[in-house]
Amino acid sequence: MDSNLHVAIIMDGNGRWAEERGWPRTRGHRAGAEAVRRTVEASPRLGIGTLTLYAFSSDNWRRPAPEVATLMALFRNFLKAEAGACRREGVRLSVIGRRDRLPSALVTAIEQAEAATAGGGLLDLRLAVDYSSRDAIAGAAALHQGTTPSREQFRQLLARSQHGDPRTPDVDLLIRTGREQRLSDFLLWECAYAELLFSAVLWPDFTGEHLREAVEAFGRRNRRFGAVPAPTLAAPAGRQASAP
Ligand code: FPP
């Protein structure tokens, strides 16, 4: 098993999970925070080295103010409650996206959690908050001057434009829960060769077992990055394995 996978997750379905039970949507977000904890805990033993979770998109500001306020409070509580455990377990916590529109108490919690966990080497846990991939790409373009940058140069600019780390590898596996099948402005550049997996499970029901199944399904995919498959050792001399 690959021991350094980058898995990104669009955690969709909190609202429907709550509405199906006749509960307010915010209760779904609270249950979603528990699913985040389960997922983080399960990741290292599945060979995941980087986990990027889409917590709040730049378009989510269009939601009702009370729902936005609940989410901001949840993120802050999560960072404050989990930073100590992350530090002990070797989880490096960071947040990508814009910070200038976030409540100042949340920005403080982000900075404290990032500082406290900076030395973690077991898992790189990234939360995307006020994140838009198109804005990040436009921001990276604005940082660049002169001739067309190489892919590697642009990757570094992109990291700078979103509070990211230039060492973060491209996404290997993108999971979206909640029955929808779209990318919703998430990691568009970084997912160039990601395998996509869409799950019908609503995010609050997502467990470590679902994550294990997703990583196993990823392991059965044939990744070619635009090339043809290598000839198999079993092919008779002089014959190449045929491309599908
Ligand atoms: C999408 O479901 C989910 C969000 C916009 C918020 C994600 C937040 C969490 C999982 C809560 C906790 C996160 C952390 C990092 C502590 P939706 O509300 O769009 O669901 P719906 O499509 O069913 O309406």
Describe the structure.
With 244 residues, this protein is an alpha/beta fold. The protein has one domain: Undecaprenyl pyrophosphate synthetase, CATH 3.40.1180.10. Helices cover 40% and strands 16% of the residues. It has a 6-stranded parallel sheet, with helices on both faces. The two termini are 24 Å apart. The structure holds farnesyl diphosphate. Farnesyl diphosphate (FPP) is lined by residues 11-16, 29, 32-33, 36, 53, 55, 60, 71, 74-75, 78, 127, 178, 203.
The set of bound ligands, ions and cofactors reads: farnesyl diphosphate
Number of domains: 1
Largest sheet: 6 strands, parallel
Mean pLDDT rating: 93
The chain-level structural class is alpha/beta
CATH class term: Alpha Beta
Bin the strand percentage: 15-25%
Estimate percent helicity.
Answer: 25-40%
So how many helices?
7
Return the string of H and E elements: EHHEHEHEHHEEH
Instruction: Find the CATH superfamily.
Output: Decaprenyl diphosphate synthase-like
Shape-level CATH architecture: 3-Layer(aba) Sandwich
Q: Please list the strands of the largest sheet in the order they lie side by side.
A: 3-4-2-1-5-6
**Rg, alpha carbons:** 19 Å
Distance between the termini: 24 Å
**What is the CATH topology?**
Undecaprenyl pyrophosphate synthetase
How many individual β-strands? Answer: 6
Shape: globular
